[in-house]
């Protein structure tokens, strides 16, 4: 830029100098008559060059602004309705087994021999001790724990037999071991009963007589039993004074895996809610399917539907998980009942 300015000034000075020189040369000198020549003079007139004006203002840089892109206008797409999670029977719970097993070997009656002492006294404690001794000697089975509820069960049975003069597992009125167990509030998986009638010499001889009878022996050595109740008493039976003895065996319901009843309650509540929400979704879905997709409110209806589907699906998934967990406990409980039931066969 500086070079352009200097060139411009020099050009001006040259023009001014040429003008002054011409004025002095032609204006102030006297006129002369030029001698004729045969050769015409050639006058060379220099071409006047106009210097390019240089602006002193700095050149501004122009930035090109890209043209604004107008987005392509597209037709709005119709929203897609989400699909509710199908239950496909996955919210159905298993049913706990309600079968309660009862083992009833035939009653044991002995004939009184002349040598049998009549002053024998039988005891609850002694019968339990010899019973556990027999279990220990036969396979090392664990000792049975005396249960006061089963003691009451056995005592009711003993008194009923004296009162009604019968010697059977089922009374003349149809009351059996399981009925008495339920009446006294003993919740069980399996119960068993041994009966004995006669003048036994001792607690040991009483248990020995039971062990010599296959059915009673199997009851005493049943590996599923955990608790025992005993009643012994002397009274009039068929016109003579004699002894009656009752053993009440039991496996309490608490021995099997517990079933979460609170979870079952929540599952039932959830299933009612799932059914209610499913009906609402079906109604809305039918309404949407009847609409043309170009309906101005179509997307609004679909979005409202989808907003209901999400919590519905979450409820179904949560309930399904609860059902699986609950059913596992029910299956374990049922397996426990089934295993105990083998003792009756």
UniProtKB/TrEMBL annotation:
Residues 79-93 have a biased composition (Polar residues). Residues 71-93 are annotated as: Disordered. Pfam families: CAP. Keywords: Membrane, Transmembrane, Transmembrane helix. It comes from the Bacteria. InterPro entries: CAP_dom (IPR014044), CAP_sf (IPR035940). Residues 129-236 form the SCP domain. The chain crosses the membrane at residues 6-24. This is SCP domain-containing protein. It comes from Candidatus Yonathbacteria bacterium RIFCSPLOWO2_01_FULL_47_33b.
């Amino acid at each position: 830029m500086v070079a352009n300015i200097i060139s411009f000034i020099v050009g001006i000075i040259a023009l001014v100098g040429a003008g002054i020189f011409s004025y002095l040369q032609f204006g102030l000198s006297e006129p002369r008559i030029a001698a004729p020549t045969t050769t015409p003079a050639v006058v060379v007139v220099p071409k006047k060059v106009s210097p390019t004006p240089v602006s002193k203002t700095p050149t501004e840089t122009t930035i090109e602004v890209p043209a604004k892109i107008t987005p392509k206008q597209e037709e709005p797409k119709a929203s897609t309705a989400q699909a509710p999670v199908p239950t496909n029977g996955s919210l159905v719970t298993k049913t706990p087994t309600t079968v309660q097993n009862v083992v009833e070997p035939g009653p044991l009656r002995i004939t009184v021999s002349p040598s049998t002492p009549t002053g024998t006294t039988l005891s609850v404690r002694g019968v339990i001790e010899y019973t556990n001794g027999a279990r220990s000697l036969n396979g090392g089975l664990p000792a049975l724990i005396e249960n006061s509820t089963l003691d009451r069960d056995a005592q009711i049975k003993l008194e009923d037999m004296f009162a009604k003069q019968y010697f059977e597992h089922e009374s003349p009125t149809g009351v059996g071991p399981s009925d008495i167990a339920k009446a006294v509030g003993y919740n069980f998986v399996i119960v068993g009963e041994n009966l004995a009638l006669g003048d036994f010499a001792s607690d040991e001889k009483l248990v020995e007589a039971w062990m010599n009878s296959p059915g009673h022996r199997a009851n005493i050595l049943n590996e599923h039993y955990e608790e025992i109740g005993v009643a012994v008493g002397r009274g009039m039976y068929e016109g003579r004074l004699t002894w009656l003895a009752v053993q009440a065996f039991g496996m309490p319901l608490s021995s099997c895996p517990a079933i979460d009843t609170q979870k079952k309650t929540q599952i039932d509540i959830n299933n009612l809610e799932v059914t209610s929400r499913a009906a609402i979704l079906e109604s809305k879905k039918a309404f949407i399917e009847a609409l043309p997709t170009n309906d101005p409110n179509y997307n609004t209806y679909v979005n409202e539907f989808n907003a209901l589907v999400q919590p519905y699906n979450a409820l179904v998934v949560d309930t399904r998980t609860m059902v699986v967990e609950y059913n596992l406990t029910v299956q374990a409980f049922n397996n426990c009942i089934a295993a105990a039931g083998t003792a009756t066969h």
